[in-house]
Amino acid sequence: MYGTTCPIPPRSNYTYILQVKDQIGSFYYFPSLAFHKAAGGFGAIRILSRPGIPVPFADPAGDYTVLIGDWYKSNHTDLKSRLDRGKKLPSPDGILINGRSSGATINVEQGKTYRLRISNVGLQNSLNFRIQNHRMKLVEVEGTHTLQTMFSSLDIHVGQSYSVLITADQSPRDYYVVVSSRFTDKIITTTGVLRYSGSSASASGPIPGGPTIQVDWSLNQARAIRTNLTASGPRPNPQGSYHYGLIPLIRTIVFGSSAGQINGKQRYGVNSVSFVPSDTPLKLADFFKISGVYKINSISDKPTGGGLYLDTSVLQVDYRTFIEIIFENKEDIVQSYHLNGYSFWVVGMDGGQWKTGSRNGYNLRDAVSRSTVQVYPKSWTAIYIALDNVGMWNLRSEFWARQYLGQQLYLRVFTSSTSLRDEYPIPKNSRLCGRARGRHTRPL
Q1: Which residues, including other chains, have CB under 8 Å from residue 325's CB and lie 6 or more apart?
Q2: SS3 breakdown of the chain: % helix, strand, coil, rounded to 5?
Q3: In 3D, which of 406, 202, 428 has the Cα closest to residue 310?
Q4: Which residues are CB-neighbours of 254 under 8 A, at least 6 positions away?
Q5: Which run of H or E residues covers position 397?
Q6: What pTM was computed for the model?
Q7: What torsion do the CA atoms of 168, 170, 175, 177 make, to the nearest 10 degrees?
Q8: Which of 21, 56, 128, 358 fits as disulfide partner to 231, beta carbons 3.0 to 4.6 Å?
Q9: Does pLDDT of 1 surpass 80?
Q10: How confident is the model at residue 13 (pLDDT cuts 50, 70, 90)?
């Protein structure tokens, strides 16, 4: 259960059997409790299309995972201690590609096409990815096949994943793979190598430059990322057969980020509430109806403008409704939000203050569906969500220091139904901790 600690006894290894329904795409995993993400432990998750369901591009000659992220020399426990003392996270010391500060290599053969699944697994920095003398064809974003747009470089914000195709159409030698920070005072850059089979020449020439602090460049690129309506997703029917733009909205929720001091220490929040974890996982408290763990609607569905305060923030929304969420960012940084358990349509983003008239500029036809979205400085981002998954779902900043210091909340997707069609019971081998310890789950 995210945001709380249920102790797990040590074992030599684990085996996970996963059955994935209605999902494809490129994702990654990481340790999500405390500040463990800073220690590493990342890995790729590839969910392939079922046999017989067409994919909108030919099988590549190779399929590579590329994990990029900012890196700190300090141990994760030292970074956590710094945050616990009320300090902010410092600037990173470097950038890694697949765990290496230099020398990460992608091997290719001339004339062949390869798929790169690129994820930003870092703690706070947006990154730009590019390959010397090669263009990238974007084909998939977090489970959605996209229009196959060509890019010379790609902004990848914290927590996001992209799939691109590259064709080895240059002379056989080594070429720079470049990752650099975005929207930072000091631009940090690292390089890897795209190595052609038979190459005898090292990468040479100037390292390809990329965008640095330009917001409009990134915003225009984000708007160009759209769904391929004719491609199949996890099912054989086209992705465009679900007409999200024609569904009436039931509710509009506005989330604004908050930053400030509480008891002399740096904290962050959403709509003035800085999240504190409960002593019992929220889903267990909800399932067993344990009182006193959290309060429903302990966070407003609009910014209050009030001062920052501590609480275990839970907002209730109704199952099988269609809602709009606006992320407002009045700060001078790019922010990134992730919602567990869902994908959503990114229907709009722009600078300034969101107004109801902003809906006139929404993309209601082929907006990309994904689970992590950026919000530019002094800007807003709008998403649509079909609430088809009952449960207690974490919505959080992907800037891990801000998440750790309170910029997160839970959406309680609620139904009064007890039908197994809507939600399965907790497995009988679940670890019960906190105030749920000693209780009995229903058998499967």
Answers
A1: 252, 253, 254, 255, 344, 382, 383, 385
A2: 10, 40, 50
A3: 406
A4: 271, 301, 302, 303, 325, 326, 328, 354
A5: strand 391-397
A6: 0.94
A7: -40
A8: 56
A9: no
A10: very low
